[in-house]
Write a structure and sequence with these properties.
mainly alpha, DNA polymerase, domain 1, hpI Integrase, Chain A, 3-stranded antiparallel sheet
């Protein structure tokens, strides 16, 4: 089987069998397509370890980051592992592929006071009744209160929101559904959005949509709009030029742990498959505690 045909079959497997998110599927396709440009579509059996090493070496020459290299190596390992299991290749050439480890960087986290300042400012901006301001306030409250991913937020429909119980049902990675709680300030902002903002935005198009959050033209809101909103609102608070919705998720998790929440409860809220993924936030909390100690203790 030619390389390109194998990639198409693998991508179909990821989307239809493993049911990975569209963003993850696009990332796998992009990395495997990049390899395809290097090998010029040979039979899959012709790709060996040296071919893969050459491909990654060229990426280092271009100045690709270690995180990009690690992601690309993970993509080819998953691809050739699938090809071996499917009987397409007899030997998996990626088993001995070594790549630099990802740099250990802690996620960007806003302080609790910084989040209070941000959300108070958003509430004040929404007080004038502008539908976009009301929607944006509700989005920021939801991202921080529930700690959900931007893809999950954009996919939420109105009937998946329960304001009485203060919960929202979201579809996470691997098409796994979970119910996430949120607090009273978020419920208040969401109520105002539903009654005063969403009907106005919905009226801007003839098409109806069940989406909870709508764009300026009345269609379901897209991730780019949410990214731009978060960068504009959160960037000055954390002092970072490029900051996305995941920073609110990081902040929510860290503040939950700082407040005494159980690590496994935070794992359930975030929808992490592994507890190890959630444990990064214990390191964030430990670093914050250490920094406070060094500033405050006379013998630090």
């Amino acid at each position: 089987m030619r390389y390109s045909d194998s990639v198409d079959a693998f991508i179909t497997h990821l989307a239809q069998v493993r049911r990975l998110s569209p963003a993850t599927v696009r990332a796998y396709r992009a990395d495997l397509t990049d390899l395809g440009r290097t090998v010029d579509d040979p039979p899959l059996d012709d790709i060996d370890l040296e071919t893969l090493r050459e491909w990654l070496w060229r990426a280092t020459q271009r100045g690709d980051a270690r995180s990009t290299m690690a992601r690309r190596a993970a993509a080819v390992r998953a691809f050739f592992g699938w090809a071996r299991d499917a009987g397409i290749v007899a030997v998996d050439p990626s088993l001995r592929l070594v790549t630099p480890r990802r740099a250990k960087t802690l996620p960007v986290v806003a302080s609790a006071d910084g989040m209070r300042e941000l959300l108070d400012a958003q509430r004040a901006a929404a007080a004038g009744g502008d539908p976009i301001a009301l929607r944006d306030h509700a989005i920021l409250e939801m991202l921080y209160a529930a700690g959900i991913r931007v893809s999950e937020l954009c996919g939420v429909d109105v009937d998946e929101l329960d304001l009485d119980r203060r919960t929202v049902r979201v579809l996470g990675k691997g098409a796994k559904e979970r119910v996430v709680p949120f607090g009273a300030p978020a419920a208040e902002a969401l109520g105002a959005h539903l009654t005063r903002a969403r009907p106005v935005l919905q009226a801007r198009t003839e098409r109806t949509t069940p989406a909870l959050f709508l764009g300026a033209r009345g269609a379901r809101i897209g991730p780019r709009t949410v990214y731009a909103l978060v960068a504009r609102a959160l960037g000055p608070i954390v002092g970072a030029e490029h900051v996305g919705p995941h920073a609110l998720r990081h902040s929510a998790a860290t503040h939950l742990l700082d407040g005494g929440a159980d690590l496994r409860a935070v794992q359930e809220i975030l929808g992490h498959a592994s507890l190890g993924t959630t444990q990064i936030y214990t390191h964030v909390s430990a670093e914050r505690l250490t920094a406070s100690y060094r500033l405050a203790h006379p013998r630090a």
